[in-house]
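From the pipeline queue, job 12 of 40. The input is one protein chain; the requested action is below.

Action: predict structure.
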Amino acid sequence: MQKVRVFVDSYRCKWCEACVVEMPEIFSYDEMTGKVAAIGEVVELTPALESTIVICPTKCIYVEEM
């Protein structure tokens, strides 16, 4: 599997909660910003993660290949 680091563009995030509901092991609510934050660790680019990226209504989730 491909290894990636996941990022969330906090300026585009509207806190719809879809990513947190789908993958709480990667995404969480950041009380400081009022937006979503992604864990900073390298993870596998799984079909579930790809699906979560696609369902984001503001397209603010992106990955960096490792």
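Job complete. Helices lie at 18-22, 47-55.
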